Amino acid sequence: MKTKFWITSLFLALCITGCQKEQKTTETQSMAIDRKAVVTRHNVQISQVDTLASLTVGNGAFAFTTDITGLQSFPDYYQNGIPLGTLSEWGWNAKPNDADYRFEETLKDYDQNGRKVSYSTQIKTPQHAKEAVDFFRSNPHRVHLGNLGFELTKKDGSAVQPEDLTDIDQTLDLWTGILTSSFAVEGILVEVKTASDQNSDAIAVTVNSELINSGQLKIRLRFASPTAAWSDYGTQWENPEHYTSSIAAQDDTSALIERQLDSLNYKVALNWKGTAKVSEKEDHYFLVEPTGNQIALTCTFADSEPKGKNTTEAIFENSATAWKNYWMNGGMVDFSGSTDPRADELERRVVLSQYLTKAQTAGAMPPQETGLTYNSWYGKPHLEMHWWHGVHYALWGRPQYLENTLNWYETAFEKAKALAGRQGFKGARWQKMTDPYGDEGPSSVGAFLIWQQPHFITFAELLYRADASNTTLNKYKERVFATADFMASFPDYDDKNDRYVLGPPVIPAQERFEKTETYNPAYELAYWNWALKTASEWKKRLGEAVPEQWTEVLEKLSALPVQEDYYLATESATDSYTNPEFLTDHPSVFGTFGMLPETSLLDKGTMRNTFDKVWDVWTWEDTWGWDFPMTAMTAARLGMPEKAIDALFMDVQTNTYLKNGHNYQEERLTLYMPGNGGLLTAVALMCAGWDGAETKNPGFPKDGSWKVKWEGLEPFF
Fold first, then answer.
1. d(CA 717, CA 329)
2. Which residues of the chain, if any, have pLDDT below 50?
3. Which domains does the chain have, with CATH numbers?
4. Rounded to 5 degrees, what are φ and ψ at 612?
5. Residues contacting 167, CB < 8 A, separation 6+
6. Could you give the CA distance from residue 224 to residue 142 in angstroms, rounded to a whole number?
7. For residue 463, which of 640, 636, 714, 184 has the smallest C-alpha distance?
8. InterPro entries annotated for this entry (predicted)?
């Protein structure tokens, strides 16, 4: 009887559990976000010439930015807005070292606790050393691969200018990555469709217009010379005589153009459907002249012989499939139904930031700050910015894009170890300003930054959370441990106070402090604490002993610097909140509890006082795009969701998000990808929270003004 009763009870329990599971599944499905609706309601639509509204198609390792014509027809006109770039990860050129510059010429010794440590800095004298600095800063430099645009003429033969275009209608379909553009010249309509292949560095374009048949519309492929300057907008048309661009092969439906720079040789393959011919109009300037009223053209850039022939149909299909897959997987947020008037704009910024980061910063190496649109800092990546470029991918359920970039750290590993060894430290010291090969770029600021050092441990830990396996541990352990070895050997022991000190020389993330006088920046101290503990945990997961030096540094690391009831930016700056210069740039003290979780060094009450102090006295007009997401993250962790939203919408120029979703900074930085990545990181944390967070959607006000739906996000540390 008891057995029968037990079986009956078990049956009922299983039925109830099954019903509950089915009910839960049904509820989840009924609450599922209509992802296509969210994405497409923020499709970018342009109806007039706007040099800050350039639109990009790309695959993460290659990007092609267009003007209002759907191609790159007016590069000079757009160069002071969002420039019309064609950039890739492989397209790097280096000038010959004819003057026999040696990297050792860039080194200068600085005193660190009584010993000399060499740093690669921007030396002014002697002249040859100064030139060596300039050479190694600018070489290699990223190259604009080619300008593909229309050559448009009026009936009288004069060139069409942007102001001559009428009936403008341009839409970027975010769901498919396909750009459609239409405009009229003297009443004659031109219809254009553009997309980027997602598996190769290729563009597809179809054009329909009577202007083709009249000879008023041709397609131009023009090559600018790399400037090798801090910035490069792809508009330096004067090419040195030793640069060559030539038609290497041609038949009825294709042409192959070969380009030779200093160290870079690459090919551009043109393939078309219909009748057309390719001719060289002048040096580095080629014309595709179709007949009839339409042409379908692909343009493939490659650093080796292009394989096969791309077709426009295949590229358009590939783009639509890949982008749909991107949007259907990973995270999504939906703020529809919110009564806060800022909700729709936040959703727009989030959707467009997801598009831009995937199109421009999802390749195989850390991105530059201006993505694949145009060069800043010679096109070189900055490793301290990789946090803002990469962390959001893991939080948005797309860790593979972060993982893609970590292989580059293996490329740079030996040089990072050599840098640490040159300076007398253990392990690997990760470079700040670098290049595809892991070489260090001389910099009076960058050489002294240290907040990029723990980033690799952050990335590895995020990937371990995505795949908590021995495979992950073994893949990254060598670099994790070498990173920690440097971190344990870098601080100096202060025997008087029995503690370890960071710096001098050191420059914090807030780059406002004199390197030879600065020590114990708050954010870096907290980051050292968290990263060494995390590396120690990796040792334990693998059954290995934690090095004694790691433990000693952790136990005796200096406390966070406190004055009155708030944290100082650095222990050496007791005037952190009275010196006007120290109230500008990044308020990186917020990184102490925002970018980072609560550490054993932190007192949340003091951090709350610090937040209020910084909020009130900071010169917010002199900040950068990721400062606002960082502030929002700190506010959210401190239980101040209203401040988190206010931070994301602070009315400051560097917090501007353009029609195309780009985070605008200033005239020399009209786009800033760390701002977009930062926004995504902050919103993920505000929705999904962090380890130990107990409040649902902790970064959003609970007054009913925000209706927050999300799926596919991961909590942060």
1. 22
2. 1-30
3. 46-94+140-328 (2.70.98.50)
4. -60, -40
5. 182, 183, 184, 189
6. 12
7. 714
8. 6-hairpin_glycosidase_sf, 6hp_glycosidase-like_sf
